[in-house]
Fold:
Amino acid sequence: MADTKISTHSLADLKNTTDDALGNYLRGLKFEQDNTKLDVRLAIGYASVVIAAATFAADYKLGWEATKTWTAVAVVAYALLNGAFTYWMWAVEKGCAFAGINVVSKTKKHDPTYYLTVSLADSDSRQITAPFTTWFTADGYFVAKPFQQWLASSIEEIGNADSKNALRDQREDLAAPSPEVELIAQSNGTT
Amino acid sequence: MFSSLGNLQPRQLAAQVLNFALVLSTAFMLWKGLSVFTNSSSPIVVVLSGSMEPAFQRGDLLFLWNRGQETQVGEIVVYNVRGKDIPIVHRVIRRFGGGSAPLQLLTKGDNNAADDTELYARGQSYLDRSKDVIGSVVGYVPFVGYVTILLSEYPWLKTAMLVFMALTVVLQRE
Structure:
């Protein structure tokens, strides 16, 4: 993974590489991934591809006149499935990078920043952001350490699972305070 | 570039293959949708010869409509010669029958000296509207169809284009 070089000017490459690393990291920490949403998308998508393939085969073997009616039915079915597919991607999945603890990632055009929205079952969702330069070298190599430290330090649940990467005394103000952080703050004499 | 595909989770790989399949199947189903809408097996055709000059040039893209079978003299129709699968674009110069009787048409290219009786299949001296005609011309875009003439005259272009499109879709994850 780390030896794959990407173009640092491609926002899509930056995001996809980071998304993949995020998944690998969280799976490595034994967070359970919930694939239901992606599976539904795959099922809808492949169903529509099968319909198109069947239409193509029927048209190739029997010709237009013989298949007219069924082609009309198939076109309508394909359009409906495609609509459902698009709806599912934009309205249900919404760029989900890791389902289970619900991590949604996104980028904004011309802004090399990784936006992560983390929502856990028992707390409100919160957004953390970091520039991609935190974990990409200038020539486009992904470096895992700073990325994992950023996640473990900013998200309490990941920090608990990966304490050696959780730099709790250096973390950002964005993250909500927790008992552990209060303790560190007290021992340092600051509040 | 390909190594990045190897790193994918099985589900992500399936999603990536799906993206590619959806591009192809959507293009095909749009074409079929247009076929259903116009009731024509081939709703868009490219003019291959100069027999309809000056109305149509080689490479013009024609849009066909095949609903309403009462074709009139003067309309330009596209038909297939029985036994051959080459679409011909010519003007209707005579019609017989129509209404409850089966409609029969005689066609001629504007730029040709004689009518199409010579072009029709052996023993056929007119077109059967419901069997032979794929549609009447209702619109056209000049010249853009020339791409397909090039593609059919230089088959390697077709291969090169397909390979290029496949690679772009598989390697991009936008």
About this structure: Residues 3 and 141 of chain A are 7 Å apart (CA to CA). Helices of chain A lie at 11-28, 36-62, 64-93, 144-154, 156-161, 179-187. Chain A is about 55% helix and 10% strand.
